[in-house]
Amino acid sequence: MENRHVNAIVVGSGAGGGVVAKELSEAGLSVVLFERGGWAHYAAHGDDELTAQRSFPLACFFGPDNERYRRVAVDQNGNERIVYPNDWAYHNNAACVGSGTVSYGAMAWRFMEEDFTMKSTYGHIPGSTLEDWPVTYADLEPYYEKAEWEIGVAGDDYQNPFAPWRRKAHPMPPFPHNREAQMLEAAAKKIGYHPFPIPMLRNSVEYNGRPACVHVRHCVGFACPVDAKNGTQNTVIPMAVATGNCELRIHAQVVEITMNNQGRATGVTYFDKEDKKQTQTADIVVLAASATETPRLMLNSANRLHPNGIGNRHDWVGRNLQGHAYCGADGLFEEEIYDDFGPGASVAICDFVHNNPGITGGAMLANEFIKLPFAYSSGYRPPGSARWGREHKEFQKTNYRKNASIRGPVQEMPNFESRVEVAPDVLDHWGMPVAKISGFKLDEDIKTAEFIADKAEKWLQAAGAYKTWKGIPGTGVSGSQHQSGTCRMGNDPQTSVTDKYGRVHDVDNLFIADGSLHVTNGGFNPVLNIMALGYWVSDYIIKEWEGGNRFR
User: Fold this and answer.
1) What is the pLDDT of residues 482-528, one digit of tens each?
2) For residue 306, what are the CA distances in angstroms to 245, 298, 417, 426?
3) Which long-range contacts (CB under 8 A, 24 or more apart) does 210-218 make?
4) How far is 58 from 71, CA to CA, in rounded Å?
5) Which pLDDT tens digit goes with each residue over 358-410?
6) What pairs with residue 241 in β-bridges?
7) Which of 88, 459, 508, 534 is most buried (CB neighbours < 10 A)?
8) CATH number for the segment(s) 1-41+92-143+230-323+414-434+477-552
9) 3-state DSSP helix/strand/coil percent for the chain, to nearest 5?
10) For 195-205, what is each residue's pLDDT tens digit?
């Protein structure tokens, strides 16, 4: 039996796609939501650190798997190698219902007003394609609020003197601090910083029929054991399905956007869970597969009207790949500061996100999530520490409970050469050319990272750390868990891929609703911004639909 024609296809069930599916289906449109993975339940995973989303010795429980997926990574000397999802160079994004919102740390940041006007604020940055967004904070503010209340955020931005204005408080109170965070909060105040509780997409109290957080150590990188972490898989997707208008189609790998001779998207080609090739038609197609998979799909959908890939008339699809230039500092203390009250990260400052003389942008700084033993042994040791043997074991035993870490996601400057391409000679399980990722950070990014790391180290020293060391990022491309920018929105079709509503410039019924739209990536974890954009794009589609534009 052929698939029934629907009003809208949404590709990807993560932060943006889940929101779009819910909004369109509640507005009465028939929707098929495609997800290449399946459901990821805590009961099937447990607390195995070696399969967590942030650990890579084994294949990740949340997908994608090493058997069917691969990519090509290009180093700064132009050398190419095939990489698999359990390699950092793959720049992984999850493959399950809810995508990364199942296993993320769940920080829920609004971007600042300056984040939408970076070009106006900082001027031309040599080597960068820096631009202002075509939307403002004021445009997105109602959609931030909707995400915070509909999906669920615990926090209190009124304690943050640098937070952008808001019309409504968060729906849940902030999380209490553990021993480490209490110590860091006091130290921050002592040196003139302005600490406040991190806003979180987790339940601090019972909310929408699901329980409050139980403060386990296994949080970031894991599914929640009590379902208190709020992702699209347990909020907006069930709401979409409950309308009766949305079909969630799992284990479905979309490989092509189909188009007619008039230049309109007609649907997608995909492989179902039995690896049978199928076609689904629709009036509207919305891509929300991630900032690496969305451009890959567009480039692999080249046709007579779009010989270089859909939407790629001016060679901007896949360009400007950004993650974050993560930096910070670690410290060792004489006394134990670990009290096993998870998930750990709860205190932050925004003193250095903007307005740093001689520095472009900046980052929020926050204490880290609880570092599990493998992660601690591989990423949080002083330079030169032993990685194996008796010395390694003694360090682990002596210092594991005496370490604190502060990190910041420095907002990178976009550049044209950091990009996603496709590798026609390297195919995945379904015969689709894989993504090829290459690029670099600008000197300006490293300069900002060094500035932010200094602030983190000063904070730890004020808290009493007897030994501190800084972590500065390398100059290679970053596009992992915070990947963005590869199909940027803009008013000029010659320098962007979509308009301000996420509609691809050359295709009236093809939209994007993921981090690909970001012109810049903010000095924050970007998930709440992606959710807000999902609501923003959906609102435009619905208004057009109800106004008589059926995109046919």
Assistant:
1) 999 999 999 999 999 999 999 999 999 999 999 999 999 999 999 99
2) 32, 10, 21, 22
3) 210/234, 213/175, 213/343, 215/341, 215/342, 215/343, 216/342, 216/343, 217/340, 217/342, 217/343, 217/344, 217/370, 217/372, 218/47, 218/49, 218/52, 218/342, 218/372
4) 17
5) 999 999 999 999 998 888 888 888 998 998 899 999 999 999 999 999 999 99
6) none
7) 534
8) 3.50.50.60
9) 25, 20, 55
10) 999 999 999 99
Closest Cα to residue 378, out of 348, 351, 400? 400
Strands 433-438 and 365-367: unpaired
Q: Alpha helix (H) ranges present in 193-336?
A: 236-242, 293-299
**CA proximity to 288, closest of 492, 143, 418, 483:** 483
Cβ partners under 8 Å of residue 4, min gap 6: none
The H or E element containing residue 287 is strand 277-287
Angle at 257 between CA 252 and CA 263, to 5 degrees: 160
pLDDT in tens, 36-86: 999 999 988 888 887 776 555 566 889 999 999 999 999 999 999 999 998
User: 22 near 13, Cβ under 8 Å?
Assistant: no
Structure tokens at 339: 């009290």
Q: Where are the domains of the chain?
A: 1-41+92-143+230-323+414-434+477-552
Phi, psi of 543 (to 5 degrees): -65, -40
